[in-house]
C-alpha cells in the first residue's frame, strides 16, 4: 500500500499541485498528460513479471469461424436505441457473426479467478473496468474480435486487420484530446487465439486485479498495455510488427457532427477513414430530429 500511496502522491503533486496555475490551459493539459503517461506505467511495471511467465503457444488461424464479441450487461433487448443501431450496423456490414453478451451469458464464455469476480460483485471493480477484463479474457479463450457496443460500423472489417494476429488502434495524434495519455484504445481489438500480446496483457491485468483493491486510473488497462510493449522484450518485438494506426479516423464523426443536420455525402466522407465510428449512447437519449445521430439510430 505504501508503494501505491507513493505513486499516487507523486502523480497528484506533479500533475496538479506543481502544475502552475499561471500556465495556459493547453500547457497545463499537456503537463498532466505527460505526467499521467509516465507515472502510471511506472507503477504498473510491478506486474511485468506476470507477462514474463507467459508461455507462447502457436497462434490459431481460424478466421472463417471467428466472431465479433460485444457486451451489454442488461442484454441487447434492453439496450438503448443507439446501441441497438450499432448492433444492426455490425450485422449489416460484417461477415463475422456478432455475439452480444449480457451479464449472465458472459460467464458461459469466460472463467475468471474467483477473487476478481468477488471484487466485481462487491462493487470494487467498476462496470467499465470489468468490461475491460472481460474483453481480453474472451479473446484469450476464443480469439476473434472485440467491438464496444457503441461502435457504429459502416463497412466490413478490412483484410489488413483480419490478417493480423493482434491489432489495436493507438491513441490519436490530436494532443488537445484530454485522454490522449491512454496510449491505445481498447474499444476494438483484433486477436487470434494464442497471440502473445493479448496473453501477456491478460496476465498482467489478472495479476493486478488479484492483488489490488481498486483501479489506479480509468485508463489503467490501456496503460498496462503501454507498460508491456515498452518493457517486455517479446512484446516489444511483436508490437513493432503490428501496424501503428491512430484512432483519429474512428472518432471523426460523433463528437463533431452528431447534432448537425444529416448529410449523406458528408457521412460517407467522414466515415471513409475507418470501418467503424465510436459513439456514446448517453449523447443520444433525445436526438435532434433529422440530425446525424437521429438518422444513424433509424438506419
Determine the number of helices (DSSP H or I, runs of at least 4 residues). Answer: 13
Q: N-to-C terminal Cα separation, in Å? A: 51 Å
- Structural class category: alpha/beta
What strand order characterises the main sheet?
2-1-3-6-5
Major beta sheet, specifics? 5 strands, mixed
**Whole-number count of domains:** 2
Shape: globular
Which tags fit this structure?
7 strands, 5-stranded mixed beta sheet, alpha/beta, 299 residues
Could you walk me through the main structural features you see in this protein, from its secondary elements to its overall organization?
By secondary structure, this protein is an alpha/beta fold. It folds into 2 domains: 49-249, no CATH class; 251-298, no CATH class. The protein has 13 helices and 7 strands. The chain has helices spanning 2-17, 25-44, 48-52, 81-93, 114-121, 127-142, 159-162, 196-211, 220-231, 233-241, 254-257, 264-271, 292-298; strands at 67-71, 97-101, 144-147, 151-153, 166-170, 184-191, 276-278. It has a 5-stranded mixed beta sheet with strand order 2-1-3-6-5, with helices on both faces. The chain has a two-stranded antiparallel ribbon with strand order 4-7. Strand 1 (67-71), helix 4 (81-93) and strand 2 form a beta-alpha-beta unit. It is globular and about 55 Å long. The mean pLDDT is 92.
